[in-house]
Amino acid sequence: MSKLIYAFVEANSSPPELGLLLKYMQSISGTTLAAIRVNGVTAIVSDLNRADLVADKLSAIAYAGIIEELAKKFTVIPVRFPSFLGSSSEVEEMINRNLEGILDNFRKIENKSEFGLKIFCDKQVLKETLKQKDNETIGKPEGSELREGSPSVYREWVDKKLKEYQLEEQVTAYVNSILTVINESVEPIQAGCKFRKMVSETLILDAIFLVRKQQKTVLVEMVKSLEAQFCVLTFVLTGPWPAYSFVDFTVK
């Protein structure tokens, strides 16, 4: 019978508590979960033949739910769904081959959780808001009288493209100003951060953080402050999650 691997857990954290938790949890196929312990690392597995797995969305959600339940009490390294090995001895050999990388990642994510922050805005609404602020601040551009007195199709096209470019630059500067506030806010707690800017027309910033579990309130207060400062945007904070985005090693 093959072994489906869910996650690695620090074996020294609390073996009796882990054993009790596994006793009342079920695998995605309804069977019992088991622990394979090797050199300070525990692999959480279940018996399941690869051919019997229905790798659909429901199975993936159930798989993630098991990892999240484990992460509530232990430091957990999630394993990608679905990951199979042929036997318990193969799982042990795999842990030994990757022991250094697994332990390094445990040290990096110990007692920490991952949080996600998505910042949404209708880009056209944002552009109109920035355009209005720009007009109020700057007023009528210099030289506009000359252009008005000598109109041409070419000049109008150049002016239009220039304004579009300047507006895109303003949007970028606006998003960078949000990043500056975020970085300043999380610097005192030394949070790990990753960002993606301009993900889509509506998702202008997608951020993930790795913070100590007891410092969740810092992120919550930061989001409240951002909402007050950037009222044209919508902020969605999610978590805590297992540290999916901050585990970094390749299985050998």
Strand content: 25-35%
Count of helix runs: 8
What is the chain-wise order of helices and strands? Answer: EHEEHEHHEHHHEEHE
Percent helix:
40-55%
CATH T-level topology of the largest domain:
Alpha-Beta Plaits
Q: Can you tell me the overall shape?
A: elongated
Classification by helices and strands: alpha+beta
> What is the C-alpha radius of gyration, as a whole number of Å?
25 Å
* Number of domains as seen in the coordinates: 2
The top-level CATH class of the largest domain is Alpha Beta
> What is the first-to-last residue Cα distance?
22 Å
CATH architecture of the largest domain: 2-Layer Sandwich
In order across it, which strands form the biggest sheet?
2-3-1-4
Query: What is the typical, i.e. mean, pLDDT?
Result: 83
Q: Unreliable stretches, pLDDT < 50, 5 or more residues?
A: 138-147
The major sheet is characterized as: 4 strands, antiparallel
In short:
The protein is built from eight helices and eight strands, in the order βαββαβααβαααββαβ.
Can you characterise this structure?
By secondary structure, the protein is an alpha+beta fold. The protein folds into two domains: 108 residues; 133 residues, Alpha-Beta Plaits (2-Layer Sandwich). 46% of the residues lie in helices and 25% in strands. It contains eight helices and eight strands, in the order βαββαβααβαααββαβ. The protein has a four-stranded antiparallel sheet, sandwiched between helices. Strands 6-7-5-8 form a four-stranded antiparallel sheet, covered by helices on one side. A hairpin with a 5-residue loop joins strand 6 and strand 7. Helix 5 packs across helix 7 and helix 7 runs antiparallel to helix 8. It starts with a strand and ends in an 11-residue tail after the last strand.
